[in-house]
Specification:
The protein is mainly alpha-helical. It has 2 domains: 80 residues, no CATH class; 90 residues, Arc Repressor Mutant, subunit A (Orthogonal Bundle). α2 crosses α3, α5 packs across α8 and α6 crosses α8. It is flat and about 55 Å long. The relative contact order is 0.09. It comes from Flavobacterium flevense. Belongs to the sigma-70 factor family. ECF subfamily. GO terms for molecular function: DNA binding; sigma factor activity.
């Protein structure tokens, strides 16, 4: 990490934190999430391994905050549309029991993965992070990320014979609970 970017970002953070916070808050309407977005954006800039120089760091941070807020809102919108469906009304007690069993098997299969594959699978598939970002943050190649995801899917298929991979979308909501 370039030390000049670190010093510049620290100065900008102290000077513009409130402005960045209010920008984030104007999108999210939640104090904790707004603070989290600003801190995450700054932290990501500090740990990024890219060799390209950021010409205007203040503008870069503002755009990154805006994009992070929009991405979070998009995820929330998807979750709201899924949770608006009252699954309990659609399923009988027997169906709910079967669904719970399948979700348990998915968790079990995920827990049996080797730690690197498990971490990468969770970040890319469940949390929706980009392969490139995960590769950079873990200091590995993008092909290594692809290998671990492919390996995780292969091992999980063996563990979950008879379970539709469409149930993995449920795992996204359940994993965070």
């Amino acid at each position: 990490m370039n030390n000049t970017v670190h010093v510049e970002l620290e100065g900008l953070f102290l000077l513009y934190y409130k402005e960045w916070y209010f920008l984030s808050y104007s999108y999210l309407k939640d104090r904790e999430e707004a603070e989290e977005i600003v801190q995450d954006v700054c932290a990501k800039i500090l740990v990024r391994n890219s060799t390209e120089k950021i010409l205007n760091l203040k503008s870069y941070v503002i755009i990154a905050i805006k994009n992070s807020c929009l991405k979070k809102l998009k995820k929330q919108q998807k979750l709201v549309s899924l949770t608006e469906i009252d699954v309990d009304c659609l399923l009988s007690d027997e169906d709910t029991s079967v669904l719970d069993d399948k979700i348990f098997l998915i968790h079990k299969a995920l827990e049996q993965l080797p730690q690197p594959s498990k971490d990468i699978f969770i970040r890319c598939v469940i949390e929706g992070e980009k392969y490139q970002f995960v590769a950079e943050s873990m200091n590995i190649s993008i092909n290594t990320v692809k290998y671990h995801i492919k390996s995780a899917y292969k091992k999980m298929r063996i563990e979950m014979i008879g379970i539709s991979f469409l149930l993995l979308f449920l795992l996204k909501n359940i994993w965070k609970q």
